[in-house]
Design brief:
Length: 261
């Protein structure tokens, strides 16, 4: 039997979703997104679940999207797949009327970090690191990084992370407000679980509606419009020679040579 890409269990008001592709560093593919979407639809109507805890098996939270996921896509197919898979799942984590917590047990890169950004709270193990490295491939974060990250840490810091592609430590992420707190590896799961259970004891309607009200009050532009704009730009970038060169260079383990084409 093929191993499930997503595991799930619930207790004490907490629904724990686990990314279960550790041999691929929990790289996100379409099948994983389909499983997440189906599971979220069930959780949405489950009154026994008040908090969603998103975690991962292995040493990475997620290395981001499968490298070849954009291969051979036209701008039209890219927009369609982006809406159908990535945006609908990430938006659901943000919109669902239950508190969502990302337990970052290891590095979160690219789309993996964007998935964490769609959650309400983020807690990290102390030796994790985070980055949005898309610029190094001649493309940009397209699943909320250009929208949610500035909301979270401010415009200048978001520009620095997105446009340099640099990696930051968990300690730096906490200073920026990217994560709410960090914990040592030996107590990480216990500490985050404790927070999730505590939040699950709050009044569920106030908890769920409160997060939605805060989001609406804070967001000065509709995120869906921003995501459409991000898709427009990305759908052109994936056709560039620079992106193809970056993928080739990555596979050949050498620095890419960008020519602005």
């Amino acid at each position: 039997m093929e191993e499930k890409l997503i595991l799930y269990d619930k207790s004490e008001g907490v629904g724990a979703i686990t990314l279960n592709r550790p041999t691929k560093l929990n790289a996100i593919n379409f099948e994983m997104l389909d499983e997440l979407w189906a599971l979220l639809q069930d959780i949405m109507v489950d009154d026994d679940v008040r908090v969603i805890l998103l975690r991962a098996e292995g040493r990475y939270f997620s290395a981001g999207a499968d490298l070849g996921i954009l291969a051979s896509m036209t701008p039209t197919t890219f927009r369609w797949k982006q809406r159908k898979y990535w945006n609908r799942v990430f938006n659901e984590f943000e919109d669902i009327q239950k508190l969502t917590i990302a337990a970052l047990n290891g590095p979160a890169l690219g789309g993996g970090l964007e998935l964490a950004l769609s959650c309400d709270l983020r807690y990290s193990v102390d030796d994790a690191h985070f980055s949005l490295p898309e610029i190094n491939f001649g493309i940009l974060p397209d699943s909320g990084g250009t929208v949610r990250l500035p909301w979270l840490i401010g415009l200048a810091r978001a520009k620095e992370l997105i446009l340099t592609g640099d990696s930051i430590s968990a300690q730096k992420a906490e200073e920026m407000g990217l994560v709410n707190a960090i914990f040592p590896g030996e107590t990480f799961e216990e500490e985050v679980r404790k927070i999730a259970v505590k939040m699950a004891q709050k009044a569920p309607l106030a908890l769920g509606m409160g997060k939605q009200l805060i989001n609406r009050s804070f967001q000065q532009r509709d995120i869906k419009t921003c995501l459409e704009e991000a898709m427009d730009v990305q759908s052109m970038l994936i056709l560039t020679e620079d992106y193809q060169e970056a993928v080739k260079a990555f596979n050949e383990k050498r620095p890419p040579i960008f020519r602005g084409k």
